[in-house]
Amino acid sequence: MPYKIDGALPPELLTDVEPGTNLLVSGPAMSGKRQLLLKLLARGESEGEGSVVVTSRNPADDVVDAYRGVRPSDGHDFFRIIDCVGSETNVDGVRVHDVSSPGDLTGIGIEFSEIAREAEEADLGRVRVGFDSLSPLLMYVDLQRLFRFLHVFTSQIQSRDWLGLFAIDPDSHDQQEVNTISQLFDGIIEIRLADGGGREARARGVTDTPTDWIALD
User: Fold this and answer.
1) Would you give the distance in Å from CA 182 to the centre of its chain?
2) Does 16 have pLDDT greater than 90?
3) Residue 121's pLDDT band (boundaries 50, 70, 90)?
4) Are 40 and 165 in contact (CB under 8 A)?
5) Beta pairing partners, 214
6) Span 62-115, pLDDT tens digits
7) Whose CA is closest to 181, among 141, 204, 148?
8) Which of 179, 112, 131, 136 is nearest to 34 (CA)?
9) What confidence score (pLDDT) does residue 196 get?
């Protein structure tokens, strides 16, 4: 059964994606890509799906507040955070897995495996996994190492029939880096700032042809 994303995105853009899909959410600073990513994650709660956020930019308490601000309902209570920037172990009832820094890729992988085990023990077959920003990771590790890590990480999501959502700021990297990372994903949701001050988005890779730019606001 596809993962529903209607409500988080305009229906003309995309309404659902197949299990095991990994999407790159690409947009410049202040484009609202983190909010969109959290909306896409929270959309699954009403379907009984779990959510996992790997945060490399904002501390866990900020992520919890932002996530709860966009969730459509109380839904499922399986919500986990892998926090690469803080030291909290529990935030308002949300289990937080602490990692020393965004460059600790091994630690991120270990904590993700632990969360996957928890999901299996909870008999939770459908989980949405969000990486709030890949950009800080490239400040700590080189492109080749990040590519290898993401290849394994996205493969684990695919093999479990989960949904992966990964945000990146293309303006923070050269085009070669963005193109290399993009190869790992089934599709891309691009966000841009429109001339009138609003935001527009389009989808590539998960539709037969790239969609038109659609207003998000």
Assistant:
1) 14
2) yes
3) very high
4) yes
5) 201
6) 998 899 888 766 555 799 999 999 766 667 778 899 999 999 999 999 999 999
7) 148
8) 131
9) 77
Q: Which two structure tokens, joined as six digits, stand for 18?
A: 């197949």
Token output for 63: 């992520």
Burial of 96 (0-12, 13-18, 19+ CB in 10 A): buried
- The better pLDDT of the pair 7, 19 is held by 19
The Cβ-side half-sphere exposure at 49, using a 13 Å CA radius, reads 26
Read off the pTM. 0.94
